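Per reviewer request, we include the raw input and output of the structure prediction for the construct analysed in the revised manuscript.
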Amino acid sequence: MGEKSHALYGWIFRVFPIRFPALPEESPVSLEIETMIYLTQEERDRIVQTLLPNVTLTRNDLEAKFPPRKESVVTRFAPSPTGYLHVGGIYMSMICERIAHQAGGTFFLRIEDTDDKREIDDGVWTIVRGMKKFDLRVDEGPIGPNFSDVGNYGPYAQSDRVEFYHVFVKELLKKGVAYPCFMTEEELEAVRTEQTAMKLVPGVYGAFAKWRDADAAEIEKAIAENRPRVIRFRAPVGLRARRTVFDELRGNMEMDDNYLDVVLLKKNGVPTYHFAHAVDDYLMRTTHVIRAEEWLPSMPLHFQLFEAIGVERPKYVHCAALLKIDGGNKRKLSKRKDPEANVEFFFEQGYLKESLIDYLANIADSGYEAWKAANPEKSFFDYELQIERFPKAGALFDMGKLDSINKERLSAMGKEDFAALCLDWAKTYDRDLAALMEKYPDLAFRALNIERLSEKDPKRFSKISDIRAQLSLFFPETFEELRKNAPAWPENVPADVRAKFLSAYAEAYDPTMDKDAWFAHLKEFGKPFGFAATGDEFKAGGYIGRVGDLAMILRIALCASKSTPDLYETLLALGVGEVGRRLAM
């Protein structure tokens, strides 16, 4: 074929792109005839052998190694080890775990570590530990000793599966569904500049796909010169093509079909996410791909890849992303901006894992909250999720709602259990506080449990980290720091009167009195110092203040704060000796 004819036919196929009819779900798809324009089978075979000379495995070998599973439902969580574990990852893992296990299926963990530039050293440890913290039962994955693989469908890290991807790339190259591309970074940048000027979508496609229709001589020359290359997918459609995709939650959706010749293998021979996920989900026999709605635009490409490979694709479920209110607008929880995006944040703050699980379950399934109210003794792992009840729009992550759930759990705990939990938390996240709790165990116990489990229980702890503020009022060492910034005394009480009252009350305080007797005693005790016992007495005149002023003076003297736990309970918790010491200061 001459050079002019070559260019003419290339132009025709770009301007009038080939379109493919919808194909039955159960039918393998071959794109050889529609996508291969110039190279003969002999030329393709020769080029493939030169590009991938060491690929000796075949698809048959892999299918024999990874046969279809007996389970009807197989789900996976497939994070990248590039940083901390996102709370959205736990959210998706919970859903995947339930969808699999409630059907008697398998839930596995796959590590998508093909982006070595962003990978962190302890990334896998962070993921596995985080999932264990939330009691998520993973059946297969790097969950053995030292993150060794458990299961028959591994390796479970993509970096150890490169040879599998090469097997399928070799097939696609032979069928003409993929091609080597030798465009340099400078050429790609020039294309982007041209597309920007023309207000076109950036990317390699159509007339911008320089190597899509290259002849065998050009390709073999580039290979012989050892020019850096990637392997690209030959998109089967052009611009303006449409495709109907089906999502188990959202139903049929008509979308723009993919027309980009995306990269399948990078220059280093490692696959991109799009290609790796298709190969892996086929070989690992995933039945349901459950992921965030941000992947919805990728569905046409992913459908094309499964069709090109010639296998049945898994079912897709795209869940609503976790959002937050920022400046009156909703946006996704951000790893960069939001500390609560990191699951470790919740442990550092002292949220119970059960509280976060219940809260995320409320978001995931609209029926969960009512079920939990009716079955308080049961856990999320007893619940059967229903895909049709998943939210389709962005799900708001409401810290206030989580605080409420956690507060109720903490408030319901027995006093001994709560004190032990607080100490365990402090040993991990606040060692100075833990040291004081261990130095003053009885004082810490009394302070933590002021009015807890009573009719007037104030339920003051939304999270365990809230104990810092309360306990700092009680320990002598931390109280000294608080006194440096103590609030002003009531202005209506002269300093000499205040000093005399505090000195006298240090001698008069009697911890054996019940609350009513104590308050009656305080009202009468204040009269000689000019404080009315009642509002009517104060209105009658002759007093500098009333009993509320006395209580405020005691709060400031005892706690260096105007806002304290119940004053009677605070006095009891401090004990006679510490009360006397503080009132004498």
